[in-house]
Amino acid sequence: MKKIDFFLKVYDVVKKIPFGRVTTYGSIAQYLGSKKSARTVGWAMNSSHKHFDIPAHRVLNRNGILTGKHHFHGTNLMQQLLEGEGLIVKDDKLINFDKYFWDPNTEL
DNA sequence: TCAGTGACTGACC
DNA sequence: GGGTCAGCCACTG
After folding, report:
1. pLDDT for A47-97, tens place per residue?
2. Is pLDDT at A30 greater than 80 in this prediction?
3. What's the whole-number average pLDDT of chain A?
4. How long is the CA A43 to C1' B4 vector, in angstroms?
5. Domain segments of chain A: what residues?
6. Are A45 and A10 in contact (CB under 8 A)?
7. Contact A79, A66 (CB under 8 A)
8. Does the nearest atom of strand B lie within 7 Å of A62's Cβ?
């Protein structure tokens, strides 16, 4: 088990998120073993956009807020990507978040 | 090796 | 009910 396995798994989970669904940093962290590693998941996302094609816009915080939108190219790119999948974003937060929530712990 | 940092979360006031 | 604080894990300099 290498250390990098952690964020490789993060990428793997994120890539498995179905179209039009979203998940949270905490859920991914919990799926990887430690619920408290949510910050590390965020770090993995930060690295992901430079190395791989990861649908990071489908990963939000537990409130469904687009916390990482500033890390995308355009200021509204993250929101536009979500809207392109049929989701509704208002004030940097996903409407009906509970409805679209996809939990790797139960779905994977 | 040590200290700092972050796309988070839960608890507390 | 909303804002603040501290803990958490893995990387970087």
Report:
1. 888 777 899 999 999 999 999 888 887 778 999 999 999 999 988 899 999
2. yes
3. 88
4. 14
5. 3-101
6. yes
7. yes
8. yes
Token match 């392109």: residue?
A: A84
Nucleotides of C under 7 A from a protein CB: 7-12
Q: State which fold the A3-101 domain adopts.
A: Arc Repressor Mutant, subunit A (1.10.10)
Where do the H-state alpha helices sit in chain A?
5-15, 25-31, 38-51, 77-84, 97-100, 104-107
Spatial distance between the Cα atoms of A2 and A22, rounded to a whole number of angstroms: 28
Nucleotide nearest to A32 (CA to C1'): C9
Q: Does residue A29 contact residue A40 with C-beta atoms inside 8 Å?
A: yes
Shortest CA distance to A94 belongs to which of A53, A62, A70, A46? A62
0.85 surpassed by pTM: yes
Q: What is the DSSP letter of A61?
A: -
Evaluate if the CB of A2 falls below 7 Å from strand C: no
Q: Which residues contact A25 (CB under 8 A, 6 or more apart)?
A: A38, A39, A41, A42, A45, A59, A60, A61, A62
